[in-house]
Task: inverse folding
């Protein structure tokens, strides 16, 4: 099987490459520049020239393979907002149009934010099932929901489509949220959570997530959606974990959502304040996915070392 990874040089994409190189597949990476072309070659896989924002090149790349896995971040989704997801949507439409009637596989990477509950900042909420549609997403990810639906519906047109809604990824010292929290704790001499800090956040180690992509490629039926969540923590517990690492340097404090926006900005504050706790029953039962990692302690330690050298 020939597999094209869009976003092969990124955090998740490069880990998928590491995993898939152990399998019996031919791996390709989409290269939109000379730099990415050379980087993909150094990874030991074959580059295919193309750009997700140049439809004709994406069409040609898709025609050369049996499966496409899209893990590229759509621009800076937080800073660019809707336009990033709009452009990503059009790129994915090109892939699906190219695949119609071929029984090829397309895996789309979405995010837990599409089913986040904005009404419960700092409060707990029930786990969100893989069967729950994203009905009322935050406005800045609304287009991503449209993309999810387009991908799932394309299973009716001779494409084996799969959607993976990703929670917070960690591992290799590259988690998105911890550097914000550690920097703030060092600067303010306090590790913060919003309101009660009871909102639940799901995590998945990047290596466990890469394994789920392999299992989905190998075993998933068409038109399925999965939540790869390994474990949950509430935001207060995360703040306490950071405080424990920093020892006597910081204390742990609650702040309001308005105070958080001043401290971190609105988008990160939403990430830290809302529930993104996912139920991964289908991933376990259908794909037989068993994550190996279940703690953020080493990740916090690694990020702290990378940033502060001790």
Result:
């Amino acid at each position: 099987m020939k597999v094209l990874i869009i976003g092969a040089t990124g955090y998740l994409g490069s880990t998928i490459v590491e995993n898939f190189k152990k399998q019996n597949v031919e791996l390709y990476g989409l290269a939109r520049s000379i730099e990415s072309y050379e980087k993909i070659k150094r990874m030991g896989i074959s580059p295919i020239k193309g750009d997700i924002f140049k439809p004709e090149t994406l069409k040609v790349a898709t025609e050369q393979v049996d499966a496409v896995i899209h893990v590229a971040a759509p621009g800076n989704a937080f800073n660019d907002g809707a336009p990033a997801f709009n452009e990503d949507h059009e790129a994915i439409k090109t892939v699906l149009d190219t695949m119609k009637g071929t029984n090829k596989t397309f895996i789309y990477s979405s995010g837990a934010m599409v089913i986040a509950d904005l009404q419960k900042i700092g409060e707990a909420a029930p786990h969100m099932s893989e069967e729950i549609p994203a009905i009322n997403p935050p406005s800045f990810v609304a287009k991503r929901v449209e993309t999810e639906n387009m991908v799932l519906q394309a299973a009716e047109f001779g494409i084996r489509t799969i959607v993976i809604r990703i929670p917070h990824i960690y591992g290799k010292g590259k988690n998105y949220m911890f550097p914000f929290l550690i920097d703030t704790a060092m600067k303010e001499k306090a590790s913060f959570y919003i309101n009660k800090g009871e909102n639940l956040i799901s995590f998945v180690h990047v290596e466990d997530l890469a394994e789920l992509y392999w299992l989905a490629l190998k075993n998933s039926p068409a038109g399925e959606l999965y939540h790869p969540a390994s474990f949950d923590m509430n935001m207060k517990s995360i703040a306490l974990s950071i405080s424990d690492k920093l020892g006597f340097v910081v204390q742990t404090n609650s702040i309001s959502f308005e105070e958080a926006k001043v401290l971190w900005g609105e988008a990160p504050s939403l990430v830290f304040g809302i529930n993104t706790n996912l139920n991964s029953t289908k991933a376990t039962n259908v794909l037989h996915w068993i994550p190996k990692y279940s703690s953020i302690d080493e990740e916090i330690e690694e990020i702290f070392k990378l940033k502060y050298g001790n």
Remarks:
- Residues 2-170+204-230 form a domain with the Rossmann fold fold (CATH 3.40.50.720).
- The first helix runs from residue 11 to 20.
- The chain has a mean pLDDT of 93.
- The CA atoms of residues 156 and 261 lie 43 Å apart.
